[in-house]
Amino acid sequence: MVRTSCLVLVGALATLLGCSDSTTPPADAGPADTGPVDAGSADTGPVDAGRTLREPQGIYGECVADAECGEGLRCFTERETGLPGGYCNRECTSPDDCVREEPGVPPIDGFCQAADANGRRYCARVCANGQDCERNGYTCIQQNANTLNAVRVCIAVCTPTSCTDGTTCDGNSGRCRATGATLTGRTIGERCLANRDPVSTPENRCRSELCNPEVTTDSRGVPFYTGFNGGQCVGRCILPQGYNPSTFWDENRLPQGSCPSGAICFPNGSLARGDLGICLDECSQDSDCRTAEGYFCRKTIQLSTTNTRRFDNGWCTPINCVNTATPCPTGYMCERRTSQGTTTGACIPVRGTDAGVGGDASTGVSDASSADGGA
Questions:
Q1: Which stretches of the chain drop beneath a pLDDT of 50?
Q2: Cα–Cα distance for residue pair 166/6, rounded to 1 Å
Q3: Buried-most residue among 68, 158, 297, 329 (CB within 10 A)?
Q4: Are 153 and 32 spatial neighbours (Cβ–Cβ below 8 Å)?
Q5: Distance between CA atoms of residues 137 and 83, nearest Å
Q6: What is the four-CA torsion angle of 99, 61, 117, 113, rounded to 10 degrees?
């Protein structure tokens, strides 16, 4: 697999960001979690006092107790699982177990997900876009990309108005948490270790479980530096209305959306309201970012080859040390990377005299280019 600095953005959005000749764009919003439900304990207790019992809901409906879900369904409550409004669901063995059927309306397809850590499989609602999920605090994400089992399903991404059962939306994790609770983990923009890192802990992992790691591996299993020095936490959000292909965003400041304070909700493959976005570390100037590790504040969007849109705020991202006048900070060197005839540069830690393939520690420049992207 060829390595490039344009990590994940696709189609027209990649063009808007100018991946070919600008800086490293935002990272992906990441793979789906275990779907719209966690395999937590269902709530069999009474409905909150003072509220009328809701009519039993079908699969994917909201609930606060099992009594509010239809026959054979369990309630995964907001308080226990963080799922906005609670979620009626069931264990499954095939997609047929996950179809929602109601009189007078077309059936809604579902997907039987892979087993969770406890060996249980649960349903997820199939969707084409965020609007299909039809509930506040839910949007659509692709699972199993580039496989025969590729499918788009609804997942929970809480909003400030979607958490109602004595909880508050934690924009970092996208889950409803007990109001006033002390939360563990790194927040948007902070240094992090990926969940799969053997030395990661709850304290140095992202609350979102989405870390742009400092080091990852290519398709051959060979490790390489990504340019996200120290790692960088990102998160998920639901896009607000206003993104468009003409101006990208009509206002002068990029929106917070459902992200926590100090982050912006940025498109991740779609500009449509309600679709999945990515929370990025907000900035107004370079000093708001981790400049000592090679990050800067990007505030421009390339709308066309002759039209660049500039905003009052932006997001912290690694510099492209080949195409900018900003050199790598002390302790880092610029590694050139070439893909499809385009060269970019990532600041990576200085590695002494073996500064990379074809590298020269005295110049602070190395070359990772090769037919397959380098090691």
A1: 1-47, 49, 353-365, 369-375
A2: 41
A3: 158
A4: yes
A5: 8
A6: 20
CA-only gyration radius of the chain, Å = 22
Q: Residue 225 and residue 165: Cα distance in Å, rounded?
A: 43
DSSP string computed for 230-284: T-EE-EEEEPPTTEETTTEESSSS---TTSPTTEEEEESS--STTSEEEEEEEES
* Amino acid in the structure at residue 35: G
Query: SS3 for 341?
Result: coil
Question: Which pTM value belongs to this model?
Answer: 0.82
As beta bridge partners, residue 337 has: 344
- Structure confidence at residue 54 (pLDDT): 78
Q: Tokens 């309630």 identify what position?
A: 75
Type of residue numbered 278: I
Cα(211)–Cα(234) distance, integer angstroms: 6
174: DSSP letter: T
How far, in Å, CA of 41 to CA of 333, rounded?
50
Matching residue, tokens 């060197």: 333
What local confidence, expressed as pLDDT, does residue 53 receive? 67
Q: How far apart are CA 93 and CA 115, in angstroms?
A: 10
pLDDT tens, position by position, 136-155: 999 999 988 888 888 999 99
Own/partner pairs for 48-51, CB < 8 Å, 24+ apart? 48/165
The tokens describing 30, both together, are: 């990441």
Q: Which residue has the tokens 């000749």?
A: 21
Using CB atoms within 10 A of its CB, is residue 346 exposed (0-12), middle (13-18) or buried (19+)? buried
DSSP letter assigned to residue 50: T
Per-residue tokens: 113: 């997900």
Answer yes or no: are the C-beta atoms of 248 and 300 closer than 8 Å: no
Question: What pLDDT is recorded for position 353?
Answer: 37
For 276, residues 6+ apart whose C-beta sits below 8 A from its C-beta are 29, 130, 139, 140, 141, 157, 236, 237, 238, 239, 268, 269, 270
Parallel/antiparallel/unpaired status of strands 365-367 and 342-349: unpaired
Residue 49 DSSP one-character state: T
Give me the residue label for tokens 């990102």: 234
Residue 194 CA: distances (Å) to CA of 202, 213, 345 = 10, 6, 23
